[in-house]
Amino acid sequence: MKQGGFRAIRLMVLLFVMLGMTVFSLSANQPTVNLQSIVLDTFDGETTRQWTVGGRTFTHEFEWRVDASRFASTIDGQSFPQLGFIQAWPMALFGPNREGRDIRSLGVWGRFDRRGYNWIDIFPSVVGSGAGDDPPTPFEIPIPGQIRYLDMWVWGSNLNYYMEVYFRDHRGIVHVVPMGSLSFQGWQNMRVRIPNHIPQSRVVLPRVSGLSLVKFRVWTTPVERVDNFFIYFNQLQVLTDIFESLFDGSDLADPGIVQELWGQAW
Predict the structure, then answer these.
(1) Could you tell me the CA-to-CA distances from 210 to 127, 143, 147 in Å, in that order?
(2) From CA 88, how far away is CA 107, in angstroms rounded?
(3) Can you tell me the distance from the alpha carbon of 45 to that of 104, in angstroms, rounded to the nearest whole number?
(4) What SS3 string covers 167-221?
(5) CA angle, residues 231, 237, 239, in degrees to nearest 5
(6) Ramachandran sector of residue 145 (left: φ over 0; alpha: ψ -120 to 50; beta: rest)
(7) Count of CB atoms within 10 A of residue 226's CB?
(8) Which residue of 13, 95, 197, 205 could cross-link 253, Cys pair, CB 3.0 to 4.6 Å?
(9) How far is residue 220's CA from residue 137's CA, in Å, rounded to a whole number?
């Protein structure tokens, strides 16, 4: 009896030790992350955007444009949808005081001739492109690191519409991520998690191959009115993992540094 009891105790101790080693191993293998929030655009009408990530400064120039499906209205020579930067903002973000402030939001004024699955695209474009009858040249916003979440403040009129965001991966494939319904009143923060199946890394260097933001798309539905509506946007930001493991020669995996070095080669 005593010998059997000692064996049982030794077996329990061994099991606890093995369990402790497993837990330690799992915690030790947790991937290292360095999450950083980046405001991609404040929608204030400026064409130059700049943000600093991991000690590096990124500067991009683009302007927002709109496009729509075939039944977009034209009234008295005025084509829809229209885009403007309106002096309005979410109070939850900037407070109610308007005196002496010039905070803007991107506004979209839409009209369609008939109900249905109409769409409006809000997309960045090359500054100054699209003069005359030429269409604007799209510009895709490169997002540093591996994006985890995207969120934006949106003003809705409680209409039964919904919104999507489009990303392009390093292979050139465009992914559509649903952002949700616009059936709410006033300003609301809309957040979406980027699915794990969208690739943001690869085997060869550079390992981290981030996504680029292509556009937003707003859909109307057949049960909802489309004759006259407004939607506003403010504070587009992402939560992204900017961690990169260092190794001997890691600077040669940075496309910017490579371009600079080869520009000095002889």
Answers:
(1) 23, 6, 7
(2) 9
(3) 7
(4) EECCCCCEEEEEEEECCCEEEEEEEEECCCCCCCECCCCCCECCCEEEEEEEECC
(5) 140
(6) left
(7) 21
(8) 205
(9) 25
Q: Using a cut of 0.90, tell me whether the model's pTM lies above it.
A: no
- Please confirm whether the linkage preceding 81 is cis (ω < 30° from 0): yes
- On whether the CB atoms of residues 198 and 257 are closer than 8 A, the answer is no
Cβ distance 233 to 105 under 8 Å? yes
Quick: pLDDT tens for 65-119: 999 999 999 999 999 999 999 999 999 999 988 777 889 999 999 999 999 999 9
Q: Which of 51, 92, 44, 86 is nearest to 189 (CA)?
A: 92
| 258 half-sphere exposure, CB direction, 13 A CA radius | 8
The two tokens of residue 238 are 């992402």
Task: Say if residue 219 is exposed, middle or buried (CB neighbours under 10 Å; 0-12, 13-18, 19+).
Answer: middle
Residue type, 146: Q
